[in-house]
Amino acid sequence: MSLSSTQSGDGAVSETEASMTGDETITFGEWRATRPFWGALALIAGGLVIAWPSLQFLLQTSMLQSQSVVSLGVVVGALLVFLGVGVLTRPEYSTAIGLAGLVLATISFPVAFGGLLVGMVVASVGSILCFAWTPADENVPVAE
């Protein structure tokens, strides 16, 4: 099965062919409006703030001397970063990811002191933003 070309003499491609090939481009603002961008950004930032002190402690001491709880701080922070990237790529799971992020942010308090409490608060805010996010209505124009 072959598709016939609908190009005009000047090499322009018709609108229907462009939509079939996926040549439509969207701006960053349009892409950002279709997902919980600020919640994901806060999740990533909170995860980095939680993981950083634990990672620095692990790098300064030998692995045999460090506590296993300290390494859990790095794991929790990395999982929060992973959830932030995950909600950017799959916004339809924002409710579940927001809930998981809130649980991990709460767990970070006894594990890594919540990234000096700042990381826990930032990750919690990001989780709540992801949990509360709903897709924009198609009929409502997006403000530019």
From TrEMBL:
Q: Where are the transmembrane segments?
A: 37-57, 69-89, 101-134
Q: Which UniProt keywords apply?
A: Membrane, Transmembrane, Transmembrane helix
Supply the InterPro entries for this chain: DUF6114 (IPR046096)
Instruction: List, alphabetically, the Pfam families matched.
Output: DUF6114
Q: Where is this region: Disordered?
A: 1-21
Protein name as annotated: DUF6114 domain-containing protein
Show the taxonomic lineage: Archaea, Methanobacteriati, Methanobacteriota, Stenosarchaea group, Halobacteria
